[in-house]
Amino acid sequence: MTVILEAKNLTTMLRNRAGIVTAVDNVSLKVRAGRSLALVGESGSGKSMTCLSMLGLLPSSGRLMGGEVLFKGRDLAKMSRAEIQKVRGKEIGMILQDAMTSLNPLLTIGDQVSEIFRVHQGITNKAELRRRSIEVLEKVKIPAAEERLDSYPFQFSGGMRQRVSIAINVAMSPDLLICDEATTALDVTVQQQLLKLLRDLQQQNNMAIVFVTHDLHLAAQFCDDVAIMYGGRIVETGPINEVFAQPTHPYTIGLLSAVPSLATYSNRLSAIPGQQPTLARLPQGCRFEPRCEHAIEQCRSQYPDWFEWGDSGRRTACWRTQESLAGVLAGIPVRSEKSVSEVA
What we know:
Elements: E1 3-16, E2 19-32, E3 36-40, H1 47-55, E4 62-71, E5 74-75, H2 81-87, E6 92-95, H3 99-102, H4 109-121, H5 126-139, H6 145-148, H7 158-170, E7 176-180, H8 188-205, E8 208-213, H9 216-222, E9 225-230, E10 233-239, H10 240-245, H11 250-257, H12 297-301, E11 307-309, E12 314-316, H13 321-326, H14 340-343
Parallel strand pairs: 3-8, 3-9, 6-7, 7-8
Antiparallel strand pairs: 1-2, 1-4, 4-5, 9-10, 10-12, 11-12
Helix pairs in contact: 4-5, 4-7, 7-8
Keywords: ATP-binding, Nucleotide-binding
Protein name: ABC transporter ATP-binding protein
Organism: Imbroritus primus
């Protein structure tokens, strides 16, 4: 399949009270047309910052220090601000976590939806703008779309506001859609409706999707591939059914073991001890080493190389991957306690 987006050795630094810290460290990933990539990890692992880095949307305290962001063969990291603005919204859409903060409370829904057509297609005719706005709202299944154009964001429910955000970001039929925790604040029923909507839109346009989440249930249901992030780095990646069925990095195994299951009953859920290291005090070696009961001296002194195997692109950054695959690493199962179907 065609690779739509490829990030190579992406490195982003932020300035905060602790000084200059590395928020995204040497991250590489690929997103293919018609497929969904889940970017998974605990809060603060660097998922959102990775997406913002790729689109040139870093805060004033952040700076992209190195790497390439190849989108359909063009390096977004080398584009000027004017050039990348032509790409954002038209060829790449990004749905943020809270639609109430991404929509302007002072403008009507119609004004905000029509802006995408004014900016990227140069349409100024009010009747044409209104027609297109109605059309795209109907596309995302908003009832009485023509009447709702004159409403304000506060007059919509959370799910409807998120549908408006989706409408704005798919209006130009982009090649890539980034969903940054787009369903986090919504109830389960609305989550499923939006996932179905995104899947339908993806199939219609052969659109690639980056799905940022810390919810393994949603990732297993919706995505084809997965990249597990920890401490600003990707530690394991591959097809999601393979990674969830046979995780090889201790962090991935810990995340899957912490997922509650309706099939079995347990008095206590498994939990990964400790917390993620702060960006100002990262370990010298593997960043998961302080929380990993299977760490060896090499883990403490040197960050692991990538171990790659199979024909599907499986990769793990762990010194003990080969032992794990061979099934001889005591305490770390080759297969997770939970099947992919249980996680989903």
